[in-house]
Design a protein that fits this description.
It contains 12 helices and 11 strands. By secondary structure, it is an alpha/beta fold. The protein folds into 2 domains: 170 residues, Aldehyde Dehydrogenase, Chain A, domain 1; 128 residues, 3-Layer(aba) Sandwich (Aldehyde Dehydrogenase, Chain A, domain 2).
Length: 335
């Protein structure tokens, strides 16, 4: 199976996912939610949309042609997948297979249904992939390299456990938004998508706002009213109630919309159902804040530099935008 065949197969997978009927997508969402209550049908649909956004033949070709895989010796790559949002391990799955390697993927118990589904679809499109894919819940064995994603705590375990292999090990990250006060209501509404999609559980979800000292937070919160329905999810609501109780007990000031809590906090990773904000005065101070947390930030959302992702687009990365800015294909090429 040559590179063109691999590109064509994944492009065909994108077409199939793009053409899923509403009934089939709802069925997949229902099955995924039964396995993981956070995976609502809407969030599953959003994840599929994100994947089909980059599973296009022209984008895949432009991406992989930046690398020379002509002399790649196929290896077996172990991939430890996270389960915080639907199909979060798919990009690693794509990288390993399109580069000509085989994959042994240790699936998260929270995201088995969807990964099994897309794997079956890919093998139906290109049966030769059947010899190159192993999905497992067991510890990784007979591997040549590792890509593992998890928490900061699990990353320390991964670094020890996989120390004899070439590896990429990813830790907790989050995303921030830079606001100037000149945003339109439409842009602030779009920012809400970056905050509330997947209930804020993804590394590309905005959990921290950097705002001018005179910023009108009341207008922002009014613009977020369309996302009020998140509070109807029982697990999200439990987190909201818990965080509010803790704040009240500790007499910590906060702003409350009834579905999200805002705290003036210098931290970068806010708990579920909360968002941190921090005022800034000057551009140098803003850049200093970003540099301080550089190793914890996945992407920066906003309309002006140093932001790189427009409001509302955090969950639609291009295929060549790598998690943690670590070039996965270059890593795989060099094995």
């Amino acid at each position: 199976m040559d590179l063109l065949q691999r590109i064509t197969a994944f492009a065909s997978l994108g077409n199939e996912l793009r053409q899923l009927s509403p009934e089939k997508l709802a069925s997949l969402g229902s099955d995924a939610q039964a396995e993981n209550p956070w995976f609502t049908p809407d969030n599953v649909a959003l994840s599929v949309q994100g994947i089909t956004y980059f599973l296009q033949k022209d984008k895949l070709t432009k991406w992989v042609m930046q690398y020379d895989f002509d002399h790649t010796i196929p290896k077996n790559i172990g991939v430890v997948m996270a389960g915080n949002i639907p199909l979060v391990g798919f990009h690693d799955f794509l990288c390993v297979l399109i580069s000509g390697h085989s994959i042994t993927a240790k699936l998260s118990s929270k995201d088995v249904v969807l990964m099994q589904y897309v794997t079956r679809q890919l093998i139906e499109i290109e049966p030769q992939f059947g010899q190159r894919i192993l999905l497992t819940s067991e510890p990784l064995k007979k591997i040549d390299a590792v890509i593992a994603t998890g928490s900061d705590n699990s990353a320390r375990y991964f670094e020890y456990y996989f120390k004899k292999y070439p590896y990429i090990i990813r830790k907790n990250r989050t995303s921030v938004a830079i606001l100037t006060g000149n945003e339109t209501n439409e842009e602030l509404i779009a920012l809400g998508k970056d905050v509330f999609s997947y209930f804020g559980l993804g590394c590309r979800n905005v959990s921290k706002l950097l705002v001018p000292e005179s910023f009108d937070l009341a207008r922002l919160l009014q613009c977020w009213e369309p996302y009020r329905e998140v509070i109807n999810h029982h697990k999200y609501a439990n987190n909201y109630d818990y965080q509010k109780s803790i704040a009240l007990v500790n007499k910590t000031p906060f702003l409350d919309t009834g579905f999200v809590l805002l705290f003036d906090n210098e931290g970068i990773v806010s708990p579920i159902a909360t968002v941190y904000y921090q005022p800034y005065r000057t551009l140098p101070q803003l850049n200093e804040l970003l540099e301080k947390h550089r190793n914890k930030i996945q992407c920066v959302v906003g309309m002006n530099t140093p932001a790189a992702v427009p409001f509302g687009k955090a969950q639609l990365p291009e295929v060549w935008e790598y998690a943690d800015n670590v070039d996965t294909l270059q890593f795989l090429k060099n094995l």
